Amino acid sequence: MKAIKHIYYWIAVLIPVLILSACSEDFLERPPQDSIVDASFYQTDDQVLAATALLYSKVWFDYNDKASYNLGDFRAGTAFSAYNDRGNVLFNTTGNTPENGSAWRSFFIVVGQSNLAINNINQFAGTAVSPTVKKMAIAEARFIRALAYRFLVMNWGAVPVIEDNLKLLSDTTVSRNTPESVWKFITSEMRLAANDLPETPIRTGRVTKWSAEGMLARFYLSRSGVESNGSGQRNQMFLDSARYYAERVITRSGASLVKNYSDLFLFPYDNNTESLFSLQWVYSPGAYGTQNTSPAYLAYSSDIANGDGWGGDKSATWWMISQYDGIKATATGMQGRTLDQRLKATFMLPGASYPEITQSITGGEQKLIFPFTGTDNNFLSIKKYITGKAKDVGGLSASQNYGNDTYMMRLAEMYLIYAEAVLGNNASTTDAVALAHFNKIHMRAGLAAFEGPLTMDAIFKERTLEFAMEGMSWYDLVSLHYYNPAKAYAILNAQDRGLFFTVPDQFPNPTSWTFTKTSWATNERTINANSGNFLLPIPSAELSQAPNLQKPAVDYYKK
User: Fold this and answer.
1) Whole-prediction pTM value?
2) pLDDT in tens, 463-506
3) What's the pLDDT tens digit per position in 35-69?
4) Can you tell me whether residue 202 is helix, strand or coil?
5) What distances in angstroms separate CA 438 from CA 243, 277, 356, 460, 469, one per listed residue?
6) Rounded-to-integer distance, Cα 387 and Cα 265, Å
7) How far apart are alpha carbons 371 and 203 in whole angstroms?
8) Which of 48, 342, 457, 545 would you label with 555, given CA atoms 20 to 30 Å apart?
9) Residue 415 to residue 385: CA distance in whole angstroms
10) Distance (Å, rounded) from C-alpha 221 to C-alpha 527?
C-alpha cells in the first residue's frame, strides 16, 4: 500500500471533492477537508452535466499553466526561454524539473476525475437522469481519460493504467503498463466515446462524436508507429484507420476552417467553427483553477498585460524562424520576409502591428507596435493566445486570469492527418485528395499552392508552422520517434536554440528582417537528443514514494 500511495493518493482522495469545493492555490499540496460527492448529487441531467463540466477546465489547470508550452514547444525547439525553464529548452528535463511534475500530476488528476465521473454516474444517477445524458456524460469522461493517457504514454512511455480509483487503494500490485497496451486501451476507449457522444454538442464547448473521431484519427496515426521498433515502417491498418476517421470528420462533422488564420486567436475566438475540442476556461474573479493563466507567462511585458506579462525572455527559436518560406540563409545569418500569415499570428517581430492589443507607452497608450530593442540580441515574443489588456477583451481579464480557451484539436489537423496517412510508408505521394487537403492548410496561410509531390518532410514542416505554440510540436516528434528515432534525433539536434538579433528594415511596418546570431552566445545553442533523454523521467517525488514505478512494465488487460 505504501509503495503506491503518493502518486495515487490524489486520484483516490483529492479528486472527488473538486466538483463541490472551491480550489485554492495549494490544493495540490494538501488534502482538502470537504467530503466526497455523494449519491444525492447525480439526480438530474443538470447535476450530471455539472459533474463532468470540470473535465474541461480545472483538472487540466497545472498542465495548461506552464507545462503545455514547456513540453510541447520548448522541448520541441519551436520556442525557447533565455533565462527560465532552461532544463526543457536544453533537453535535459530531470525528475525534479517543475513542469515535469506538474504535467504528470495534472494528467493523473484528469484520469482520477474521469474515473470518478464514470463510477459515480453509473452508481448514483437517479431515475430522473435521462439515458441520453447518462450515456453522453460517461462518454465525455472516457474521451477525457483517453486523451490524458495519450499525453502520459507519449511523454513517459510505460505508465500505469487506472480505471478504478477506489480499488487502487487496496491493490499493491499496480505497476506500469507497456506503451503498446496503453495505446490499445486508449484507442478502444475513444471508440466507445465516439459511439456514445452526440453529433452536435449538448452544450457549447462539449465534445461530440466528431471530437472523438478526430482524436481517433490522431491516435491511429501515432499508433501506426508504436510497434515498429524503429524499423521505419508503420502499421498500414492503423494508417488506413487514421485516414478513414480524418476524412469522416472533414466531410461529415459540419466543422469548417476559419477563413483567416489570425482570427483563430483573436478575442472572442472560443468554440469557433474550426475547434473540435478546446479547454473551456472562464474569466472568474475570486475563483482559482477554472481560468486561463498561461497568457500571464507568455505575454512579453506588462505593457500589454494586466499586471502580469512575464514572457519577455520567451521567443521563437532561430530554427523555427528558418522554417518560414521567404526567410533565406545568408553568409552572416538569415534575411527576408514571408507571405505566411502564421508567423505574425504566432510570434512578434520588431515593427509588427497588432491593433487588437493596447500597449502602454511613455505618456499614454497606443495600438501595439512590437518594439525594436537591444544591440546584439532580442526576442521574437509569443503572440498566439495573447489577447491584451482587460479593455481589449470587454473587461474579461485580470492578472493571471484570462478566459480565452486552449485548443486541444482543430479541424486543420484532420487535413494534415489525412495527407500523412495517405503518404504512409511511401517516400512521396501525388495523391490528388491528399494534396488538396494539404493545400487547404498551406494556402489559408497565404502561400501559393504546393505542387507536390508530398513528402514527410513537407508535412512535418507544415504541422510545425500550423501548430507552433499550441503545445503540439513535441508530440509530432514523439510520433516520428516511434518508427524513425534517428530522424527525430536528427531534427532536434540540428536545431539552433540560442540567442540572436532581429533587425527590421524599417520601423514600424517593416517589409523584411535581418537575423544574426549573437556572437558571444556560443554555448547552449544545440542539444543532444538521444535514446537516453528522449522520454521524460518519471518525477522524482513519485519514484521515491512509489517503487512499483521502477518495475518492468507489463501489458494492460482491461478488466
Assistant:
1) 0.94
2) 999 999 999 999 999 999 999 999 999 999 999 999 999 999 99
3) 335 568 899 999 999 999 999 999 999 999 999 99
4) coil
5) 13, 21, 30, 11, 20
6) 8
7) 42
8) 545
9) 23
10) 27
